[in-house]
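To illustrate the input format used throughout this study, we show a single complete record. The first block contains the structure-token representation of the backbone; no residue identities are included at this stage. The design step must infer an amino acid for every position from geometry alone.
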């Protein structure tokens, strides 16, 4: 082995070690963005320093005469270290009213203040419960609060077991593998999965570039066969190429064809005839939905939802009423039955390499998907946390849970290098 080869091998080995050291994560993207620490709304409260021996008695009495109905996340007692290992207990009495005058306290609380000779003062507590651990840490700097991690309780969605997590990671790796499978470029990819059977319903890449050249044909339909639980990870984790010699600009150029990163590119960019044209609609999620629909028509050529004919005949029904009838008809059937044609993508999961844009996110609302998983945020046009939060729009008639699957960065970057090398070759 010569010196150059040895140096490259060492870099590749270190890269592989770094990849293995980073554990994949599944992060819930809440419906509302977390408050910045300095922007969290607060309310003023009356508090007092108390003797530790009186804490239980005072808390019990205050919970009876002045419960914190609108501040259930705020704890009654605050512990402070005042030096030399000594602790000081502070008790929250009530919220401030009438410009904070002590005389404005309820009569029962005033009696406690006088009886225990308490010296009151005014402080601030956070008005709303924390939605993340980071937000909770900042809240507790003002006054202790409770924090309950989200359980993703949307249509029965709860936390992930070890087996479920591994399945999510495998499907996401499959989506990234598709996104980097096109010669010389990287695109977005979508994989629609039936979580009850762990079966890939449909998969596709961006099809926005239309050209006669095979290199630019990036739409790819997935198989309807059962997806293996344990993917051959060597396709991803054994990529032994480094981006140490590549600039950030080069990386941006390679991913410039990811449709959801540039949803308006069709309107501002005029491609030459030799390069084809940029289609505004054929994003990976949209194409995957088309493949899912084609699969259903192929598997159920003669199937009609019960009452579909009568619905069509009754022209007096509004579109929303027809939709409700068809929804209820599908929900009354067993999805696992082979004789039942699924209604759209109801109950399915979709895995995307990049966070979808608003168009794709809304299309997935209409498809009734249950969960959306994406790996890389979309700071240009992301609709599920980066720029907008469509999952928190309460006026919509369907809501899904959104998760970001954080994989080691090298999983994508090494695949990007392969695509770049293939394009140069």
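Output of the design step:
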């Amino acid at each position: 082995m010569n010196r150059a080869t040895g140096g490259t091998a060492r870099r590749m080995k270190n890269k592989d070690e770094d990849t293995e050291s980073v554990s994949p994560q599944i992060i819930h993207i809440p419906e509302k963005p977390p408050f910045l620490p300095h922007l969290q709304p607060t309310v003023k409260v009356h508090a007092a320093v108390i003797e530790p021996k009186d804490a239980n008695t005072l808390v019990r009495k205050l919970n009876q005469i002045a419960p914190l109905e609108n501040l259930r996340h705020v704890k009654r007692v605050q512990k402070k270290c005042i030096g030399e290992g000594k602790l000081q207990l502070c008790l929250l009495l009530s919220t401030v009213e009438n410009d904070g005058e002590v005389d404005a306290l309820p009569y029962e609380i005033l009696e406690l203040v006088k009886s225990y000779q308490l010296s009151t003062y005014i402080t601030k507590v956070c008005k709303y419960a924390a939605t993340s651990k980071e937000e909770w840490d900042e809240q507790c700097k003002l006054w202790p609060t409770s924090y309950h991690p989200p359980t993703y309780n949307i249509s029965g969605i709860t936390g992930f077991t070890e087996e479920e997590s591994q399945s999510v990671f495998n499907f996401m790796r499959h989506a990234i593998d598709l996104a980097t499978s096109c010669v010389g470029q990287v695109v977005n990819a979508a994989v629609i999965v039936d979580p009850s059977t762990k079966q890939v319903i449909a998969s596709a890449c961006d099809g926005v570039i239309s050209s006669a050249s095979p290199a630019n044909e990036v739409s790819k339909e997935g198989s309807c066969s059962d997806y293996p639980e344990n993917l051959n990870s060597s396709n991803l984790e054994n990529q032994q190429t480094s981006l140490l010699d590549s600039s950030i600009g080069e990386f941006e150029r390679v991913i410039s064809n990811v449709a959801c990163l540039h949803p308006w590119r069709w309107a501002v960019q005029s491609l030459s005839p030799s390069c084809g044209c940029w289609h505004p609609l054929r994003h990976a999620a949209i194409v995957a939905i088309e493949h899912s629909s084609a699969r259903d028509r192929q598997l159920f050529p003669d199937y009609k939802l019960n009452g579909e004919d009568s619905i069509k005949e009754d022209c007096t029904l509004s579109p929303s009423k027809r939709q409700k009838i068809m929804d209820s008809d599908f929900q009354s059937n067993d999805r696992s039955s082979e004789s039942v044609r699924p209604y759209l993508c109801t109950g399915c999961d979709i895995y995307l390499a990049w966070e979808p844009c608003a168009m794709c996110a809304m299309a997935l609302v209409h498809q009734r998907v249950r969960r959306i998983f994406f790996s890389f945020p979309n700071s240009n046009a992301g609709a599920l946390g980066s720029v907008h939060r469509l999952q928190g729009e309460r006026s919509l008639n369907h809501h899904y849970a959104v998760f970001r699957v954080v994989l080691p960065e090298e999983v994508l970057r090494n695949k990007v290098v392969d695509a770049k090398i293939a394009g140069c070759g």
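Structural context for interpreting the output: The radius of gyration is 28 Å. The first helix runs from residue 3 to 21.
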